[in-house]
Write a structure and sequence with these properties.
Largest sheet: 5 strands, parallel
CATH superfamily: HUPs
Strand order of the largest sheet: 3-2-1-4-5
Number of domains: 1
Distance between the termini: 59 Å
CATH architecture: 3-Layer(aba) Sandwich
Helix content: 40-55%
CATH class: Alpha Beta
Number of strands: 5
Radius of gyration: 17 Å
Bound molecules: adenosine-5'-diphosphate
Structural class: alpha/beta
Order of helices and strands: EHEHEHEHEHH
């Protein structure tokens, strides 16, 4: 397979992107010449923002990082990596639970596609942040402003407001 060892993809759902993801992106730019943030969909997770919305939010946040690009994909992650001729996949680690899951994923991807995974540890302050928790907290009215970038926080509040406005009443008609 033809690939560029200086290019990596950072795949994830980013629904929405958190300060933890951004931390991984910043660390990734120290390791790779070109980083493609690859916005996909995890079939095990419910989607709040559309892929287009997620891509737009991330593009805004990395606008000052010339070596980072953002794209969405629908195929298998390893296939997307091959399309980009990426030499590696970048993933973030928060805790031991991540290690177990990511280990399986990395071994599988290496076995089926021969691609390596490079891990970076997040900074301690973001070690507990994950998108699912951010979504759930925000939906229940919790303050998630310290966990996600301000622009994302504003969109999240707006999205929840829209969802409430269009939600069907719980009581039978
Ligand atoms: P996926 O559904 O594919 O796991 P996510 O968007 O949840 O997608 O996560 C993408 C990657 O970012 C994963 O490697 C995950 O471990 C990592 N990640 C998520 N949140 C953080 C965080 N707070 N610190 C470090 N890495 C994180």
């Amino acid at each position: 397979m033809k690939y560029n060892p200086l290019t990596a993809i950072f795949p994830g759902s980013f629904d929405p992107i958190t300060n933890g993801h951004l931390d991984v992106i910043r660390r990734g730019t120290k390791l790779f010449e070109h980083l493609v943030v690859a916005v996909g969909q995890n079939p095990d997770k419910d989607q709040l923002f559309t892929k287009e919305e997620r891509v737009a939010m991330i593009r805004e946040l990395v606008a000052d990082m010339p070596r980072v690009s953002v794209e969405s994909y629908d195929c298998l992650t390893v296939k997307f990596a091959a399309e980009k001729q990426a030499g590696a996949m970048l993933r973030g680690l928060r805790n031991l639970t991540d290690v177990e899951y990511e280990f399986q994923l990395a071994m599988t991807n290496r076995t089926v596609a021969g691609i390596e995974t490079v891990f970076v540890m997040t900074s301690e302050e973001y070690g507990y942040v994950n998108s699912t928790m951010v979504r759930q907290l925000a939906l229940l009215g919790g303050d998630v402003s310290k966990l996600i970038p301000l622009t994302v926080y504003d969109r999240l509040k707006e999205k929840i407001r829209q969802n409430h406005a269009t939600a069907k009443p719980d009581v039978p008609e």
